[in-house]
Design brief:
The chain is mostly helical and 286 residues long. It is built from 16 helices and no strands. One of its GO terms (biological process) is transmembrane transport.
């Protein structure tokens, strides 16, 4: 598929199927156990985001890159594709129950990528568009879903069925988009950027080192399914949003696109390895 087809798929998921999937996944009965799980997920999310921001900022300062690549470099490390690919992976591993927890885990991430993510590319040159933050479809659907989760009434069954049928399109569409992104990788781009050690370092932190920081929660005896969700979600490839921000705010868009495609390709190996590591560690902590 060409670039325009990728754009259509991205917009379709961003504005229609992913919000529907979020609303469907949060259509559940509230309980004290869910509240405890929510607290664990928020704690893990805040922790790994803080670690990611700190490490990425330090690596950025040490990097001998031009300014229009430094912001891309930092964004590639901090922000993973926790929406599209994240939902697909967690659905495969943990089915629909996992989507509830993933949505809760992503709340802090969504706020960060629409604030700090833009700040990385604009710094103090432009003010953050708060309307973009508040009216982002991912954030809106998350908070509407959370409100319905805590309120005493639920969506009508016909609406829930619509959310389900539309939302589950996210999984095959995300797989289609991944394949298209990989197919768009050009040999001259691969030859040019594959020699850049910084892009490999960014991929290593995004896919391997940062998720391993969450193993601390094994020592704290957090619920094992929640740790699986947190680790795998934090191991997603770099977000396609990085390419969008680079294009919009004057970063090196081709450098960003290669980073996204490289991490997307490598995650086909690293995600199964991390999942296998979690399964191997499970008997030692539970």
């Amino acid at each position: 598929m060409n670039f325009h087809a990728n754009e259509v798929i991205t917009q379709l998921m961003l504005y229609i199927t992913l919000p529907a999937l979020i609303l469907y996944s949060l259509h559940t009965t509230f309980s004290s156990d869910l509240l405890i799980d929510f607290a664990w997920l928020v704690a893990m999310s805040l922790y790994i985001l803080a670690v990611s921001v700190f490490i990425a900022a330090w690596l950025r300062r040490k990097a001998a890159l031009p300014m229009n690549q430094k912001n891309v470099y930092e964004s590639l490390i901090v922000f993973g594709n926790q929406g599209f690919i994240g939902f697909a992976v967690i659905f495969i591993v943990m089915a629909e129950q996992g989507l509830i927890y993933l949505t809760l885990f992503n709340i802090c991430y969504l706020v960060l990528i629409w604030t700090y993510g833009i700040y990385l590319f604009t710094k103090n040159e432009q003010s953050i568009n708060w309307r973009m933050l508040v009216f982002n479809p991912g954030i809106l659907s998350t908070f509407i879903g959370l409100a319905m989760l805590f309120l005493p009434f639920k969506w009508p069954q016909a609406i829930v069925a619509t959310f389900e049928s539309v939302g589950k399109m996210t999984i095959p569409l995300s797989m289609l988009l991944i394949g298209s992104l990989l197919a768009d990788l050009r040999w001259y781009q691969f030859r040019q950027y594959s020699k850049n050690s910084y892009i490999w370092l960014a991929a290593s932190f995004r896919l391997i080192f940062l998720p391993l920081f969450l193993l601390l929660f094994l020592l704290l005896h957090a619920p094992y399914p929640l740790i699986v969700i947190a680790v795998l979600t934090s191991a997603m490839p770099s977000a396609t949003t990085t390419s969008v921000y680079a294009q919009k705010f004057g970063g090196d868009a081709s450098f960003a696109s290669f980073g996204v495609m490289l991490t997307t390709l490598l995650c086909l190996l690293t995600i199964p390895l991390l999942y296998g590591l979690l399964q191997w560690l499970h008997p030692y902590f539970y």
